[in-house]
Amino acid sequence: MIFSVKRTMAIFQKDYKDILKNYFVSSSVLMPLVLAALYGRMGVETVNEHYLIFNMTFCLVAAYVQCSLIAEEKEKNTLRGLMLSPASTLEILGGKSLLSFIGTILVIVISAFLTEYKPENILVISIAIVLSTVFYIGLGTVLGLMTKSVMEASVVILPFIGIFSFGSMLTYFADKFPILKAAEYMPNSQLINLANQVQTGAGLLDVWFNFAIILAWVAVIYVIVVIVYRKRMMD
Amino acid sequence: MSILKINDLEKHEEHSLVFPAFSLEVSEHEVIAIHSSTNVRAILVKLFLGELPVSNGELSINGHEIMKSKKAYFNQVGMFLLDNGIYERLSVKDHFAFFKKLYSSEISMDDALRMTQLEPKRNIRVSKLTASEKRRVHFGRLLFQDPALFIFEEPDQNTDLETKRVFLKLVRKLSERGKGVLVLTGNMESALSVTDKVCRLDETGLHVLDVVSDEETTDALPKEEHKSEDQIIEEEIIIQPVRFEKIPTKVNDKIVLFDPPEIDYIESNEGQSNIYIKGEMYPSVFTMTELENRLHPYGFFRCHRSYIVNLQKVREVVTWTRNSFTLVLGDAKKSSIPLSKTKMAELKGMLGLK
Questions:
Q1: Which of A153, B170, B267, B318 has the fewest CB atoms in 10 Å of its CB?
Q2: Residue pLDDT, tens place only, A45-80
Q3: Which residues lie across from B310 on neighbouring strands?
Q4: Which residues pair with B325 in a beta bridge?
Q5: Is A86 close to B75, i.e. CB distance below 8 A?
Q6: Mutant choice from A80, A84, A90, A150 vs B, greatest count of B C-beta within 10 A
Q7: Which residue ranges does UniProt annotate as crossing the membrane (chain A) (predicted)?
Q8: Which superfamily is assigned to B2-209 in CATH?
Q9: Contact predicate B249/B242, CB 8 Å
Q10: How would residue B227 be classed by pLDDT, with cut points 50, 70 and 90?
C-alpha cells in the first residue's frame, strides 16, 4: 500500500473547510488566544504562566480538534464512506493530524507572541513543543476512536484539560502528599520543567532526561492508538 | 464477462432462513434489480459491505473476494446506501472537489454537476439541500469513484421526480459505458422503471420475474383473452340481471366490497392480485384478467402486465426515456405505476392523442 500525499491533502483540505464552518469546535480553538491576550495585558512573570496557556492549547487544539474530527466522521456516518474509498486509515488519520498539528503550532506561536514569551534557546523549545503536540494528537486520536459523537468528545476531553492544563500545579503539594510526586513525570510538568531549565541557560544536552520522558509518553500513547484502533476495527 | 458473481449464497439468521442458496451474475452493460423485503435487503447490503461474513457460498466482484483482499474488492464496487453520511457544512462544490481528489478522478467538476443537475446549487451548503438533492450529491460521489460495479440501495425512495430522472439517466449512461448495475429495492415500480431484469429474493429463493419483453406478451395475450372471453360471457349472464357492481376483496375472514371508482389501482404479485385503495392494500379473489374484464366498463386500463389502473385517478404520464413511462396518480401518496411501451400507444388512442 502506497501512502498517497494527494489523498491525505484532500482529506486535510476537506477537514479544514469543514472546521472553519464548525463554530462549536473553532470557538474552543480561540479560547487559548483570548486567554493569552488577557494574560499578556496583565503581564506574565513566570514561565509557568506561559505554559499554563500552552498546555491548554495542547488540550483544546491538538487533542480536542483531533478528537472531534474523528468523532464527527463517526457521528455523521461519513467514516464508512472514507473507509470504502481508496484512502487508507493512515491517510485518513494523517490528513486529520496534519490539520490539528498546523492549528496547534499556529495557536502556540500567536499566544507566545501575545504573552511576550521569549525562550532563551528557541531550538530546544521548538523541539519540545513539537514533541508535545505529537503526544496530544495521539491522545486526541485515542479519544476520537473511543467516542461516538462530538458531544461525547467534548465531555470526555474535560478531565484531560483538567489534568494536563492545571495538573502541573499539583506538584506544589508534593511535599505534603508524596504520591503527587508522580505528577512531576506527566508530559506537561516535564515540558514546564524543561522550559524553566532552558530559561536558566540550559542547552539541548542538559535537558535530555525531560526529552526522554516526553518521548516515552509519545511512544506509550501511539501504542494505545494502535491497540484501540485494532479493537475498534473488529466491531 | 460477468462483474458480480454470486454463487450459492445463502443466509440463516438465528432460527430463520433469510434466503436460501441462490446464484446471480451481473455482467457488463447489465442492469439488474432485486426486489426484496427490507430485512433481506439490509442483510444483502451487509454481505456486500463485509459486515456480515459470507459463510455459505461465494461473492466476488471482478474476481476479488472481500475476505481475501478488501482493498481490491472495494476498488471495484461503488455503493449508494440509504444511510450514507454527508459533510453537512460543506458546499456541493467542496464535496465534489474532495471526491475528485480522493478517487483521483479524471471527470471534471462541471460534468459531474451537470449530470447530477446540481449546477444551481454548487455553492450552497449541503445542510440546506433537500433530501433528494443530498442523494444526488452521493450519485456524484459514485461518478467520481467510477468503479466496475454500482450497487444502489433504494435509490429513488421518497425522492422527487427530478432525482428519479437523474438516477435513470445515470443508470443508462453507466450501462452504456460497460458498467454493471445492481439495484436493491422494496418497490416493484421503482425496480421496473430501471430495468427489465427484475428478480425477487425472499425465503423461498430467487425468482426471475418475466417482465414486459413486449414481443412475448403480445404472443401470450391473445390466448389469455380468448380463454377469458368465454368466462366473461358466462359471468355477464349471471351478473347482468342483478347489476352487480362491487368488487369483493378478502381481509382475513371477511369479504369487503368496494365500489370500482374507489379503487386506485391493482397490482399483481406472484399470481395474487392486490387492490389498492387510499394507500391500503386488499387481496382480491380474482385474477388480473378477470378483474380487467370486470372493471373495463368503469374506465380501468391494463397499463402493464401486472398492473391495472383506474384512469380517472391518473394525474400525470411521465416519460423517462422513449421506451419507459410511469403513471403518477392523484392520490395522497402520489403512487407511481409502470406503463409498458405497447400499452402507451393504446392509452394514447384512448385519450384521443395520436
A1: B318
A2: 788 888 888 888 888 888 999 999 999 888 888 888
A3: B300
A4: B319, B339
A5: yes
A6: A84
A7: 20-39, 51-71, 92-115, 121-143, 155-174, 207-229
A8: P-loop containing nucleotide triphosphate hydrolases (3.40.50.300)
A9: no
A10: very low
Strand B265-269 and strand B280-283: pairing?
unpaired
The whole-angstrom separation of Cα B109 and Cα B100 is: 8
Which chain A residues have a beta carbon less than 8 Å from that of B145?
85
What are the angstrom distances between the C-alpha of A223 and each of A3, A134, A216, A230, B71?
21, 13, 11, 11, 25
Q: How many angstroms separate the CA atoms of A66 and A88, rounded?
A: 17
ipTM value, please give it. Answer: 0.84
Across the interface, which of A18, A86, A87 has its CB nearest the CB of B90? Answer: A18
Chain mean pLDDT for chain B: 82
B-chain CB neighbours of A7 within 8 Å are 101-102, 104
Q: 0.90 cut: is pTM over it? A: no
Q: How many domains does chain A have?
A: 1
Residue B286 has pLDDT above 50, yes or no: yes
Residue B147 CA to chain centroid, in angstroms?
Answer: 22
Q: Where are the domains of chain B?
A: 2-209, 214-351
Specify the fold of B214-351. Answer: OB fold (Dihydrolipoamide Acetyltransferase, E2P) (2.40.50)
Per the structure, the complete domain to which residue A101 belongs is given by 5-234
**Beta-bridge mates of residue B258:** B247
Contacts for A49 with CB less than 8 Å, ≥ 6 apart: A39, A115
Q: How many contacts does A have with B, using Cβ atoms within 8 A?
A: 62
